[in-house]
């Protein structure tokens, strides 16, 4: 190969790298900023879902074009456990009614600091196979409104979507899965509850106090600041490192009942880990006498 051709090919390669990097960043970001959404909001593939516990929170004002998503359409308590996954067919119908299709790019927008509930929707959509087409609006509607970005009370009109789940079955796991991975070196178990629950100081209303054996504590509340925005990802990565979560490990996250663990799940995804949500969480584990519990010897919770 002559020198002229070599340098020409090298320049072509260098010129293409930033474009590829930017495209990947835009498509796969787990947490997106209000500025990013404002820039992309007119993209026809964008579907903003306003996640709220009651419709009135949506009707008071929302991001233009945003569609109301009630928590109970995604996760709901049953007679056995709290906040469990709903039937796949029901989830599929809900998403299609909201105008979601397989090619949609979903932006989940919370309100009033309900970041854990928003993250639970994120995990559910990840389970349904949405993969890199789902993101969480960092700071939610409160940040959007505080920055003076447009707000409306107008209810958008849209066509039903066509959505076919492509399940990621290991995204949501059960007690047997956790039990079978307790002592594997390539799997890290993360207890996201507040330190007093992890250390067994209080049971939190569960039948037994303590933690799942080998679990490390990364308190989910420590991942957000006072405005409910995520702290810098570098600091979150430090928390994982300090907790002894090895790079490349799969992580199993759990909390009291399978909601607050979802924020750590999303953060783990953002850091490149393969996460799994133990849906029943400690509510399920502590109620089963056949499953072991330990009281950590010392408080190794990650607070800062």
Level of helix content?
25-40%
What share of residues are in beta strands? Answer: 5-15%
Mean pLDDT across residues: 88
**Shape call:** globular
Number of helices: 11
Order of helices and strands: HEHEHEEEHEHEHEHEHEHEHEH
CATH third-level topology of the largest domain: Oxidized Rhodanese, domain 1
* Annotated CATH architecture of the largest domain: 3-Layer(aba) Sandwich
Beta-strand segment tally? 12
Structure class:
alpha/beta
Describe the strand arrangement of the main beta sheet, using strand numbers: 1-7-6-2-3
When the domains are counted, the total is: 2
Q: Strand count, sense and closure of the main sheet?
A: 5 strands, parallel
Q: Can you identify the CATH class of the largest domain?
A: Alpha Beta
Radius of gyration: 21 Å
SSE order and pairing:
Layout: H1 3-28, E1 31-32, H2 34-40, E2 46-52, H3 55-59, E3 67-70, E4 75-76, E5 84-85, H4 88-97, E6 105-109, H5 115-127, E7 134-137, H6 140-146, E8 172-173, H7 175-180, E9 187-191, H8 195-198, E10 216-217, H9 233-242, E11 250-254, H10 261-270, E12 274-278, H11 281-285
Parallel strand pairs: 1-7, 2-3, 2-6, 6-7, 8-12, 9-10, 9-11, 11-12
Antiparallel strand pairs: 4-5
Helix pairs in contact: 5-10
């Amino acid at each position: 190969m002559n020198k002229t051709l070599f340098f020409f090919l090298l320049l072509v390669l260098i010129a293409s790298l930033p474009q590829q990097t930017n495209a990947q960043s835009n498509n796969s970001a787990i947490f997106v900023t209000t500025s990013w959404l404002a820039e992309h909001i007119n993209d026809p593939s964008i579907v903003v879902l306003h996640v709220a516990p009651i419709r009135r929170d949506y009707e008071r004002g929302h991001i233009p074009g945003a569609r109301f998503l009630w928590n109970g359409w995604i996760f709901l308590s049953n007679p056995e456990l709290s906040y469990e996954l709903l039937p796949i067919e029901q989830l599929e119908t809900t998403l299609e009614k909201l105008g979601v299709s397989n090619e949609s790019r979903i932006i989940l927008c919370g309100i009033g600091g309900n970041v854990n509930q928003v993250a639970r929707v994120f995990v559910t959509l990840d389970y349904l196979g949405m993969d890199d087409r789902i993101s969480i609006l960092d700071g939610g509607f409160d940040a959007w409104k505080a920055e003076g970005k447009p707000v409306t009370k107008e209810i958008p009109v849209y066509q039903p979507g066509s959505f076919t789940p492509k399940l990621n079955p290991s995204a949501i796991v059960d007690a047997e899965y956790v039990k079978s991975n307790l002592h594997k070196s390539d799997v890290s178990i993360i207890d996201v509850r507040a330190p007093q629950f992890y250390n067994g100081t209080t049971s939190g209303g569960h039948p037994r106090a303590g933690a799942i054996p080998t679990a490390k504590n990364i308190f989910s509340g420590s991942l957000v600041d006072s405005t409910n925005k995520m702290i810098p990802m570098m600091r979150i990565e430090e928390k994982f490192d300090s907790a002894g979560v090895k790079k490349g490990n799969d992580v199993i996250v759990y909390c009291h009942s399978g909601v607050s663990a979802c924020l750590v799940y999303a953060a783990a995804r953002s850091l490149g880990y393969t996460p799994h949500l133990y849906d029943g969480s400690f509510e399920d584990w502590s109620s089963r006498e056949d499953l072991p519990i330990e009281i950590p010897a010392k408080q190794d919770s990650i607070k800062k």
